[in-house]
Amino acid sequence: MVKLSREAKQRLQQPFKGGQFASLWNLIPLMICLGFRRGADPGMSKPTLFSLLRG
Asked: pTM for this one?
């Protein structure tokens, strides 16, 4: 096992924290995009951006 200094560990943690942040904030737009691509259930009107914002 390689022993790293405290400074090296902190440098390695920066990209991992950035990746974690990016993946969390990209999940919400991904789910919205997939919802629009799949469409509404049979018998329901197709969702629009305005209907989603109106709540």
From this structure: 0.42
How far apart are the C-alpha atoms of 22 and 13, rounded to whole Å? 14
- Are the C-beta atoms of 34 and 47 separated by less than 8 Å? no
Q: Is the dihedral of CA 25, 30, 33, 38 positive or negative?
A: negative
For residue 12, what are the contacts with CB-CB under 8 A and spacing of at least 6?
4
pLDDT in tens, 8-46: 888 988 988 988 888 888 888 888 777 777 666 677 667
Residue 26 to residues 4, 17, 53, Cα–Cα distance (Å): 32, 14, 19
